[in-house]
Specification:
429 residues, 3 domains, OB fold (Dihydrolipoamide Acetyltransferase, E2P), Rossmann fold, alpha/beta, 5-stranded parallel beta sheet, 20 strands
C-alpha cells in the first residue's frame, strides 16, 4: 500500500479539491498520511493571493522535500498558475500541475508509477471533474459550485490564476450533495471563487440554493465566502428554512467609499450597509463575517478610520484582516501613495481589535439562545466541540455524545480559551 500526504494552503476551493483528491487516492488503495510523514507521494496545493501566501507555499514545498527526499512531489494550485515557469526552473517538484488539470492528479501519479513518467499537459482541462469525497479531512463536506472571476478588482490576481467565471452544472452539484449525504455528512458548505455569479442555464445562485435545501436528508447547508451582490428578498427568505445556516462571510474589503472606488469594487459602502440592514431585518441574529484589506495604496488615516467605523457599525463577528500585498500585473501595484509596511502592520492590529470587540458583543447577543450543534470532535475527557447553525463555536460536556451528530443546546456561558479567543459554553437542552 503506497502512502500519500497532502499539504493545502489557501481558500476553501483548495480544501474542497484536496478532499476530493484524497478520497480518490484512498479509494484506489493509498494510505493517506500527514504531509510531514514519510510518504511515496506528497501533493502541495498552493495559494498565491498575497506575497505572504507565496512565501508560505515555498517554505512548505522546501520543508516537505527535505523531510521526504525520495517522495514523488506534486505541486499544484494557484501559485502554479502564477509562477509555473519559476517552479519548473527550480526543479524541486517532480510535477507542477496547473488548476485546470488538478482533478487529473491521481491519473498522472498512477501513470508515473506504471510507466516511469507522465505528461500532465496531455490531460484535458476540467475544473469540475472531481469525484465526490467520501472521507475528508473535515466533518463538513465542501462542495465546489463555481470557479474563476470576471471582476478584475485592482488589487487581485485571481482572474489571472483561476481564469474567467465558470459554473458547475446544477445536476452535477445536486448529485454530489446526495452522495456525500449518503456518506454520512451532516453539513454541506457551498464554495467557489464568486458564488453569487453562479449561472447554469436558467439556474442562478438563488435557485440553486433553493433546490439544494429541498434535497432529502438530515443535513444543513452553509454558504461560504461570497461577494456582496444585491441579494434579493427572495434569497434572504430562504434562510428561514431550517437547513440553511444563518451565516455568511460577505467580503467587504474596505468601509471607505474612496478606497472601494480605487479597489474597483462593484458596490458602494452605502449599498453594503443597505444589504446588511435587510439581512438583519429578516433575522437580527444573522451572523455576518467579512474580509477587510488595510494599507491599500492611497489609504489615509481618515479613510482607514472610515473603514474602522464602518466595521464597528456592521457588527461583523469576525474580520479576516489582510495587509495589502502588491501583486505584479495588477493596477494597484503601480498606484501612487503606497502605504509603508509598518503602517499596514499598525492598522492591521487596530482592525483585529475591532474584530474581537465585535465578536464579544455578538456572543453576548447570542447568550441564552438555542443552537443546533454539529459535534465535530470529542476529546479524551468527553468534551465535545463544534459549531451551531450561526457558526459560533460551542463546547459541551455530556454522556453518549457522538461525533458528527446534531444536538440542540442552550448557550448559558461565554468563556475564553488560550487558543480560541472566545467559545460559547453550553448546556444540553
Amino acid at each position: 500500500m503506497k502512502k500519500i500526504g497532502f499539504k493545502t494552503l489557501g481558500c476553501r476551493v483548495n480544501l474542497y479539491e484536496t478532499d476530493a483528491l484524497a478520497s480518490r487516492f484512498k479509494k484506489e488503495g493509498y494510505e493517506v498520511v500527514s504531509a510531514e510523514q514519510e510518504a511515496d507521494v506528497v501533493v502541495v496545493n498552493t495559494c498565491t493571493v498575497t506575497n505572504t501566501s507565496d512565501q508560505k507555499c515555498r517554505q512548505a514545498i522546501h520543508q516537505i522535500r527535505r523531510k521526504n527526499p525520495h517522495a514523488l512531489l506534486v505541486v499544484t494550485g494557484c501559485m502554479v498558475n502564477h509562477r509555473k515557469e519559476e517552479l519548473l526552473k527550480e526543479g524541486i517538484a517532480d510535477y507542477v500541475i496547473d488548476n485546470e488539470r488538478k482533478a487529473a492528479i491521481y491519473d498522472i501519479v498512477d501513470e508515473h508509477f506504471k510507466q516511469g513518467h507522465s505528461d500532465p499537459e496531455g490531460y484535458d482541462r476540467d475544473l469540475f471533474s472531481y469525484q465526490p469525497a467520501f472521507d475528508t479531512f473535515h466533518t463538513r463536506s465542501l462542495i465546489k459550485i463555481h470557479d474563476g472571476c470576471n471582476n478584475f478588482c485592482s488589487y487581485c490576481i485571481i482572474p489571472m490564476v483561476r481564469g474567467r467565471s465558470t459554473s458547475r452544472p446544477a445536476e452535477d452539484i445536486y448529485n454530489n450533495i446526495r452522495k456525500v449525504v449518503d456518506h454520512g455528512f451532516k453539513e454541506i458548505v457551498l464554495t467557489g471563487v464568486n458564488l453569487g455569479r453562479y449561472r447554469d442555464g436558467e439556474t442562478g445562485f438563488e435557485t440553486l440554493v433553493e433546490h439544494i435545501i429541498n434535497i432529502e436528508g438530515d443535513f444543513r447547508v452553509r454558504v461560504s465566502s461570497i461577494e456582496p451582490d444585491q441579494f434579493s428578498d427572495r434569497f434572504l427568505q430562504l434562510f428561514q428554512h431550517e437547513k440553511l445556516a444563518p451565516h455568511m462571510h460577505v467580503c467587504l474589503q474596505s468601509g471607505s467609499e474612496d478606497t472601494l472606488k480605487r479597489m474597483h469594487r462593484f458596490y458602494t459602502a452605502a449599498q453594503y450597509r443597505d444589504m446588511v440592514e435587510r439581512i438583519k431585518t429578516f433575522n437580527p441574529d444573522f451572523n455576518l463575517t467579512t474580509d477587510i484589506i488595510v494599507g491599500f495604496p492611497g489609504e489615509t488615516d481618515q479613510t482607514f478610520q472610515e473603514s474602522c467605523d464602518f466595521a464597528r457599525e456592521m457588527g461583523f463577528s469576525h474580520i479576516h484582516t489582510f495587509k495589502y500585498s502588491k501583486r505584479t500585473g495588477t493596477k494597484a501595484a503601480v498606484m501612487p501613495d503606497q502605504v509603508p509596511e509598518t503602517v499596514k502592520t499598525e492598522r492591521s492590529e487596530v482592525m483585529r481589535s475591532i474584530s474581537l470587540e465585535n465578536k464579544a458583543k455578538y456572543f453576548e447577543q447570542m447568550k441564552g439562545k438555542k443552537q443546533r450543534l454539529l459535534v465535530e470532535r470529542i476529546d479524551s475527557k468527553g468534551l465535545a466541540r463544534g459549531y451551531g447553525e450561526h457558526y459560533i463555536p460551542i463546547q459541551i460536556q455530556g454522556k453518549n455524545i457522538l461525533k458528527n451528530s446534531f444536538i440542540d443546546v442552550n448557550i448559558n456561558e461565554i468563556i475564553n480559551n488560550n487558543n480560541e479567543d472566545r467559545m460559547a459554553f453550553v448546556g444540553i437542552v
